[in-house]
Amino acid sequence: MVRHFDSELQDLRDGLMAMAGQVEEMIELSQAALREGSAAKAEQVKALDRLVDEQELKLDQACIDLLALQAPIATDLRLIASSLKIIPEIERIGDHCCNIARRVPFAHPPVLAGDAMEHLAGETRGMVRQAVDAFVNGNAGLAREVIANDDRVDTLYVQIYKDLLRAMLADPLCIERASNLIIIIKNWERIADQATNIAEEVLFILEGVNVKHSYLQEKPPDPGPGA
Amino acid sequence: MLACHDLQIEFNRVPVVRGISLDFPARKITAIIGPSGCGKSTLLRAFNRMHDLTPGARVTGTVTLDGRDIYGKAEDAVLVRRRIGMVFQKPNPFPTMSIFDNVIAGLRLVGVRNRGTLREAAESALMDAALWDEVKDRLKSNPMSLSGGQQQRLCIARALAVDPKVLLMDEPCSALDPIATAKIEELLFRLRERLSVVIVTHNMQQAARVSDYTAFLWMGQLIETGLTEKMFTNPKERTTEDYITGRFG
Fold first, then answer.
1. CA distances from residue B137 to B131, B141, B159, B183 in whole angstroms, order as listed
2. Is B163 exposed, middle or buried (0-12, 13-18, 19+ CB in 10 A)?
3. Chain A residues with CB-CB distance to B245 below 8 A
4. Rounded Cα–Cα distance for residues A212 and A193 (Å)
5. Which CATH number is A167's domain given?
6. Domain count for chain A
7. Residue A216 lies in a domain
8. In this complex, how many residue pairs, one in chain A and one in chain B, have their CB atoms less than 8 Å apart?
9. What digits encode the pLDDT tens for the residues B16-64?
10. I need a surface site. Which of A87, A221, B168, B230 has the fewest CB within 10 A?
11. Which domains does chain B have, with CATH numbers?
């Protein structure tokens, strides 16, 4: 039986996918703006952010309406509850892209960070893409891959951060540019965190398990018989 | 604790309940859910021997209360129903009796005659059913003058007056408005402190709101049972998921 509710849930999924598509475009544009020093692309990022913000308000309301009017349970409940958490994660990714775009005039060319900067941006962009694909296709394996990849991005971030610090110590004239690059890499690293959060929500939708803060969920070792 | 083991119920050799084994923990509310015709009311009625008088009905397997088989040869069905009370979908007060007489009908049936005892039991049961304040000044009135919700709480008081261990409820709120329903649901939470409740309901939200455990029946079989919060957020079985989310049934 096809329910009217199912089409409303599909509208929610479609809305999330559209919003995610917009921030993926923002990620590409901000990466290109920094690489090319393109003010036009940086402006495009800011323009898209407005659309993402509008979409956030619309989808928030859609979720509240579905909760109030449909009283969802089981997978339907998990989808809507997690959507309410995924929506602000996507919106924050848009904000980070704007932060990167704003720094373009002060950070271009990002030569101090070398190829590692492109690598970091590429890894982060891949994580967002995978998290969205995991949501769209209901792919738990892909969601787990995203979560695992976050460590790689963290390592890369620390490595670039140290390189920039060394560059500033060696040449005080590059402090301003390097400081802006540090802010930019922090934004890339935060975007990867947001992708990880989305992947965690995807696992909750698909499997009903909460994988956040896994250290809190570890069971104490079995003391064994007689203890 | 109420429990059934390999319970089968047939009517004219047509099986309606097929080998259900289920425990109903003491002082907990268990909801039985499932589509129409899945056997949930039939199962509930077996718990206070209501099929005894149905021609062609055959109950096999065991139903025990605190370890005693309620279908045992020495068991009296009237006494079983004193320990396992029942409330039905449509409020069914006895129309020719007063409110007071309705409440104590069960006690009179088992031979209680002392006026003081009956008065005390009626007041206590009406208070337990959250009806006392609304009827204390008109105990001699006809129960049909009460609202539907009040009539249902009167039926609950009548069941409580004989101090049952288990209260069976067959869609007790389906004929009530949301306010009357909320009163019954609040009442269930208080009753849980002293007895077990087994409630059959078609209302998924009600099952989710009031019960500690949920059992899902389909085509006479138990498909899944477990903690209600688990059943309604992450059921194990696909059939359960499809039913509770309204995809079939």
1. 11, 9, 21, 20
2. middle
3. 72-76
4. 12
5. 1.20.58.220
6. 1
7. no
8. 32
9. 999 999 999 999 999 999 999 999 999 999 999 999 989 999 999 999 9
10. A221
11. 2-244 (3.40.50.300)
